[in-house]
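Journal club prep — side note

Before the paper discussion, L.F. wants everyone to see what a predicted structure for a comparable chain looks like in token form. Sequence:
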Amino acid sequence: MTDPEVLADATDTVELGTLVLCNQFRHPAILAKMAVTLDEVCAGRFILGIGAGWNKPEFQAFGLPFDHRVGRLEEALQIITPLLRTGRVDFTGRYYQARDCELAPRGPRAGGPPLLVAGSGPRMLRLTAQYADMWNPSEYVSAPHALGGHRAKLRAACQEAGRSPSAVELTAHVPLTFPDLGTPPASSNIPAHLSGSTEEVAGAMLALDEMGASHLMFYCAPYNTGALERLADSARICRRESVRA
């Protein structure tokens, strides 16, 4: 079983998703079928997150081409999106083909699971605005105010694509540390961590919500039981305060 299948069986209300799958690891039609199957297993709680991929050694290990990654993703989205939304597609491109392809049986949601695209470049934003339900900037957000620039970019991309900015949700990937539980390892990919008490982290969650984030994904460092318990406490405080507001 995959991790989402295990989590689907162990939970009843938690949304499950991928942040994110590399497009080239699976044929897009197969990936769409897998996503709908997982959505069935978890009773409509799955979010399909996908990106163009970036880690060249992985491509080399699998013998996959590293070129034209965004172009390949663009074609993949033209297969995945209609299969999720309508169950059918007929597509022939430079990199992928899905001729007279049908996805059956359909999953628990008529429009399929939400599609999240991750990526920060102009072309990735354009594809997000065209095809996605959710966007992740693929950059860590350690302070709520940092989300403002991403929100402006997403709004502009949606307007250019002729979609309402409210049609695509903004998500945030937050590096988190609780100082008394340990020091996070140094990383060039994470310039700073959100840090503080459970109450302070809950306050940051509320601020991120006010900045327009519909979903928060936390990367705890160090990653241990204590940090996860603190994060859960912060989430409870955040939910309680948001209900009061």
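L.F.'s comment for the group: DSSP finds eight helices and ten strands in the chain. Keep this in mind when we get to the figures.
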